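name: query_chain
kind: protein
chains: 1
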Amino acid sequence: MQSEHDIMVHGIPNVPDANAILRQELDVHKNKLGPIKWLRMGPNRGFHKTNYAFLRYEDASVHEEAVTLLNRVGIPRTNIWFEINPRPTTTDHHRQEESVTPRVSRLIDELREEKRKLEQKTKELEQQRREADAAKQQASNARSELTENRRLMSDLHDRVNQLEVSKHQLQAQLNNSRDLVRDLLAEQEPRTWIPQSRNLSRLSTTTNEFVSVQLLARPTTHKNHRFSGGPCPVCLEHFENCPSIVSTQCGHLLCENCMFSYVRNSDRDVRERCPVCRAQLASNYYTRAIYN
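structure:
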């Protein structure tokens, strides 16, 4: 049986009348390549998206030229390509000894390499996705922290407003106490008391030298007044609950316990000034105010 190296045709669309359509496309080059002796489709037709075929011209010497020409111009709207069959083929083409040609092997190797690259790219994309998820979680945590900080700032602002209100209330109470003292002094001249000491000459109000804090008498524990105003600007206790009330030279009323502690426990440059308005105190610091 005669055997020759014919042309293998790859990538033939598996459609009805594929043989007739392919032959019609090949006959376009009949003037250059000569007539086709036969064109036979591969045996696996019907099981794949593409098929292969064996092509032989009447003049086998044009096969090399035909492969070059047909691969250059191609078959319109297809991916068909041609090559010389490396094995002699008989008309019993289904008995081909080698089912995979070198070019097909190269294509398989290229596909494997593409698959490897795709797998590598997939891993890189997965890593990027994980990093994006981590960044998204960090952004979510940052938004939560920002929301919490805004809430804390709002609470702090509310607290500051509350303190401002309390400050105004205390200032109003202090003003009321001053008004009360002013009214009381206008109605009745209070009897004043100079703190007892072992050296009365040190208590003179005509000298600029302050009395030694060691000479101040301790506050009384018995209530000796009928003041009901207040509160004391130091301890915020109402005067009616204080055993004794004292007055500064600038006219501020405080409970004697607070003023005594203030004078005894403060530095000199501090205790010589009123704890309320920082005005200069008298040399005896304060006097006991009695309202009976």
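note: The two ends are 149 Å apart (CA to CA).
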